[in-house]
## 1
Amino acid sequence: MFIVAIETSCDETAAAVVRDGQEVLSNVISSQIEFHKKYGGIVPEVAARKHIEVINPVIKEALERANVGFGDINAVAVTYGPGLVGSLLVGLCAAKAIAWGRKIPLVEVNHLEGHIYANFLNSKSKILSFPFISLLVSGGHTMIILVKGHGEYETLGRTRDDAAGEAFDKVARFLGLGYPGGPVIDKLAKRGNPAAIKFPRPMMDQGYDFSFSGIKTAVVNYVSRLTLHASQVPDLVASFQEAIVETLVEKTIRAAKDRNVQIVTLAGGVSANSSLRSRLQKRGQKEGLEVIIPPFEYCTDNAAMIGCAGYYKFINSSLVISHSSLSLSPVASLRL
Ligand code: KG4
Ligand code: ZN
């Protein structure tokens, strides 16, 4: 079964062709980051307009690279939220046009679900089994989710303020390191000592919720007390990253043990973080847990993960709310 998937929830225009929910035949991503960099964050109106410019060429390229035509496609999967409404609308309109023109089903996919399903793209031979714990860490969300089956989620914890990726982005912006902050901090932190500064680990002993705005403020306070020299930045960001990673990993492992779940997965843009990936692997191994991490290219926003989630929604057709529904609307804020 061939699914063409479209993802435009934020600043990446993405299209993919996925076969049988697992084999990625193409995964095209056009990033707008260069246009937004100078503003230090995403400008929603600019994002929507840029999506319009590239959506058709991106879909065309995805089909060409997969060596399929519209006639070979069985369904269209599309992100309908959460995200920027103007951006989502562009992907939705394109998806509706394909579904309507080809008379094929339109499968709506929650962006958060897409990130979780990136883990099903992990290996050709092995399919992830239920239940598993998913640590979903992106620019807009930080959640620990117990995934019991396809479409069956229990949110165990979430951030009460900033998302983990948001904390990376805000600290990087404060330090003048550019946007997005995660990859820059990740790289710089490799040259620093993560034990140099002991930043707080908020709510470490309380449940599975997170709070990251305090760490961000601690960084700001630390810097305001001294004249920061460029040579100190690697230690500073390594220590900040350590505080975030330790909190994420310890709570996730605790959730798995408390719920007696053997598999832990990572999802969302922050799962590209090298320290988080290795730390979770090591801690998981120590606890006898299986840790599954999506391939790097499926961590940040992409359409292959949407195609995968769409496939499982489609084959479990009770989960498909609308088939070729032209009334499907973008949703800015959406839970699992
Ligand atoms: O999932 P994503 O691409 O978009 C959202 O759905 O939000 O996540 C983007 C977030 C940004 O905050 C970015 O700074 C962060 O993921 N990120 C990283 C890394 N790569 C991307 N954070 C830490 N380390 C990274 N290597
Ligand atoms: Zn995302």
## 2
Amino acid sequence: MRIAMIGTGYVGLVSGACFADFGHRVCCVDKNSSKIDGLHRGIMPIWEPGLDGLVKSNVDRGRLTFTTDTVEGVKDAEAVFIAVGTPARRGDGHADLTYVFEAVRELAKVIKPGTVIVTKSTVPVGTGDKIEAILREEGATDVSVASNPEFLREGAAIADFKHPDRIVVGAEDDRAQNVLREIYRPLFLNRAPILITGRRTAELTKYAANAFLAVKISFINEIADLCEAVDADVQDVARGIGLDNRIGPKFLHAGPGYGGSCFPKDTLALLQTADEAGVDQRIVRTTVGVNDDRKQQMVERVQKALGGDVSGKRVAVLGLAFKPNTDDMRDAPSIPIVKALLDRGATVSAFDPVARHQAEPLLPGIEFADDAYAAAKGADALVIVTEWDEFRALDLDRVAASLNGKILVDLRNVYDRADAEQAGLTYYSIGRGKPAFPGA
Ligand code: UGA
């Protein structure tokens, strides 16, 4: 199959490289010439484990190319995937489809009849219909429009793409169905189920999946609060409920709230769609509120651990990216937490294995350290915000020796209380029994 991928963001670049790895011929198109120049030189615009090697091997085999020129990129394509950004529009949370529609207008002028246009970007219900209307307006005839939402996670993107739990295809005609079946045929060998639905259903499935996962996280975060109040352990509760197949063990890790480029944006966009449809989605609405409040609760936790006042205190923060194995800072819980600490008069030193360059412009006024121990040096408390693997096995004696105040606030529950206490640290976790804050 010959495929064009419009947009070389997370989803576009990973999908493009993986399709090429399946043996298809893929051309990735992006207007951003510095990104495309970089890709020609083997420089990835994002930090994703394994992506540089995958891109290189497929470029070397001649299956993966990059261009800024849409005409060149799509001229032979049987399928054109749209994977441009759909950020939340300022003010109303609605997904901003400007880039999607711009891409469609441009494509309308250059694609040949018989092409299948596929949205891979997360787009609200009805976007496929609007794309069809634009194509008609622009005089492009005999083009199919399908929806094929992507479910990969950052940090595990390649494995997720190659071993999906399912492939969802929203297609209204046989041609679109057949082209997409052919593109994903290599995955059928792994028995990945393909679910063919109507286009609107596929569009909504993506939002429903992300919203449900966001609900699961907020649910366990609230259960963690309850665990603290009644002296129970959320890790064991999560295991106890997660072993029930109907619930499942994943996405039950209590923490500082979900972040990233998807859950915050997609839950808001789902609410917007629901408002427009005149249907209330109370569970998702509440989830958004619970998650917003969560970050401030984490600041209170650090403040309580420090005796009720952070002003004049030095706080070391480990992990700034919204999750491990990425340099993505979009909607990272670290941002409101660090900002609130600074506002309340604390000094903040931070270390993140890869997100420093993304974090610097977002968090002016913090000191960046070169490793976890340097961040901890002289601090009154150490706060783990993102659970990078390298923070899971710190030498706690060394951490304690580096710290001024011997306080470890573990917002990701990566340590055992007994180990931390043995190193002489006062340990605060999330939802693991009643926290003994000083003066409480
Ligand atoms: C999420 C979905 O998991 C993907 O399936 C989807 O394709 C993607 O959004 C998207 O729509 O593009 P992603 O945002 O990359 O993927 O990362 P996740 O691993 O889902 O984590 C999201 C947030 O939830 C992170 O802040 C993470 O720390 C938090 N989280 C996750 C928890 O707090 N607890 C958990 O148990 C799991």
